Amino acid sequence: MPKKNKIKPQGSPVMDALLLKGEAKPIPKIGDLVEGVIINLSKNEVQLDIDGLTTGVVRGKEIYDESGEYSNIKIGDKVTATVLELENEQGQMELSFRYAGHRKAWQQLEELEKTGEIVEAKIIDANKGGLMMRVGNVMGFMPVSQLTTEHYPRVEGGDKSRILQALRKFINHQFKVKVIDVNETEEKLIVSEKSAWEEKQNKALSNFKVGDQVGGTITGVVDFGAFVEFGDNLEGLIHISELAWQRIDDPKQIVKVGDKIKAKIIAIENSKISLSLKQLMIDPWKEVSKKYKVGQSIKGKVLKLNPFGAFVELDKDIHGLIHISELSEKQISEPADTIKEGEQHEFTIISIEPENHRLGLSLKKFKKNVPQGTDDEISKDKSSPPAKEDKETTETK
């Protein structure tokens, strides 16, 4: 709101006369809204007739209107403006569309927040935190977290410069958004594409339920899983743990963008859809007891070390776990003291829990149970230098 200017002691002669006759309406105060009819119009100035009592003028930057209501005004139109000054140097009432439009624009935004109506917003600029967008004539902001999965910058490692590069591709695009936070005093406007998408997603989801099988296309692969588009532009997530029965470190080992897949809906929470690839496959752990037995010696490949032990591949579906305490008879500080990733070793199976998809292994028990004269020992003997023959024995031969 403009600063309140001092009102000159002398009033308008015309108004004074009308007031004396009792024919004039109360004189408006600075900051009041007044109505008038446009009587003259140019690029930098608009003149209004205020109830036939005085002429109002809107000049320069005060013509700019955030609400957009006065973008296409013409002579004869009735408009509302804010009083800046009762009389200027020419005896006219100084008015502003800018302040009136500002208030109206923010009232409209408050109404949009209240109703949850979906509107279009044009992207003007981007920074590492999100996108600057124009809703009507008001500049707002959309944090990265409020983007849909389709537009979310899937950047490995969260490199901020690459995130900014991805966001800048959206400049001059139009997104459908919802207004989620309005504060006129702070001139803060926050919008969300995700909220608008969720409303649409919820409507389309009425055709699906948990347990349904869906056919879709992989639209994105990230560290924690893969996104799948199916149905009427619906998108679900297959978490890394639901991509395969065996343990995997990278979803790209299983799927890639563009793959056509079938998945099972395992959860629907609001608009969030969780899918599973592995639940449409036969669970190999159901037959694990037919293939492996406790006490059995088995060869396996060390896949990954971690502080508490290592994961070992027994076959393409079954992976076992060897705890650090089962790696050596001696106390070791970390698994790498005994084994390395990629190595093949013989292990002893010490536990099988099919229902929990767990199989325990031991390296120290296998070594302890290796009988004398095994290939390992023979190889060790062969690698030792031959003992020198006793001279006397040689001579007696």
Characterization of the model:
The protein has 397 residues and is of the alpha+beta class. Helices cover 19% and strands 36% of the residues. It is built from eight helices and 20 strands. The strands form four sheets. The protein has a five-stranded mixed beta barrel. The protein has a five-stranded antiparallel beta sheet with strand order 8-7-6-9-10. Residues 1-11 and 372-397 have low confidence and may be disordered.
Q: Give the name of the CATH architecture of the largest domain.
A: Beta Barrel
CATH class of the largest domain: Mainly Beta
The portion of residues assigned to helices is 10-25%
Beta-strand segment tally: 20
Task: Walk me through the topology.
Blueprint: H1 13-21, E1 33-41, E2 45-50, E3 54-59, E4 78-85, E5 93-96, H2 97-115, E6 118-127, E7 130-135, E8 138-143, H3 160-168, E9 174-183, E10 188-192, H4 193-204, E11 213-222, E12 225-230, E13 234-239, E14 260-269, E15 272-276, H5 288-291, E16 297-306, E17 309-313, E18 319-323, E19 344-353, E20 358-362, H6 364-369, H7 375-383, H8 391-396
Parallel strand pairs: 3-5, 13-15, 18-20
Antiparallel strand pairs: 1-2, 1-4, 2-3, 4-5, 6-7, 6-9, 7-8, 9-10, 11-12, 11-14, 12-13, 14-15, 16-17, 16-19, 17-18, 19-20
